[in-house]
Design brief:
It contains four helices and no strands. It has about 140 residues and is mainly alpha-helical. It folds into two domains: about 55 residues, no CATH class; about 40 residues.
């Protein structure tokens, strides 16, 4: 019999902790009947009754965080998706790739110009004629 009391006591504590977490993490629009602080005090002072009251009357129905099961047509009955983090947003990643590609092309173009200028400077110093296709300096 003592084991049953211990088990019921532990179940009451777990229920109270779950109710407190649910109450404290609920948004203001999801709390009904009483202010949040009143619900917290009720759950703390009357753990079993307060926890059950919170889950029945304290929060809006359907506010539990559940994942929707896909329906037969492949769609889910979820709320609209939240904005993605930048590293998960395909459009943002595409813009970063495009910007990186443009920067790489600009850097490559500058390196080629610098290489041509250095080659021309070396040829002038050595007295060699400019390469074919190069414009003579005026």
């Amino acid at each position: 019999m003592a084991r049953l009391y211990v088990l019921l006591f532990l179940a009451q504590i777990v229920l109270a902790v779950c109710a407190l977490i649910s109450c404290l993490s609920a948004e203001e629009g999801q709390i009904r009947a009483l202010p949040r602080i009143a619900w917290v005090l009720i759950i703390l002072f009357f753990p079993l009754v307060g926890s059950i009251a919170w889950f029945i009357a304290g929060r809006e129905p359907g506010t539990a965080t559940r994942t929707a099961w896909p329906s037969g047509n492949g769609s889910t009955d979820r709320q609209p998706r939240r904005p993605l983090a930048p590293d998960d947003d395909p459009e943002f990643l595409r813009s970063v790739q495009d910007r990186t590609r443009q920067q790489d092309q600009e850097l490559f173009r500058r390196w080629e110009e610098d290489l041509r200028r250095r080659e021309d400077d070396l040829r002038r110093r050595d007295g060699d004629p400019p390469r074919e296709g190069d414009r003579p300096e005026v």
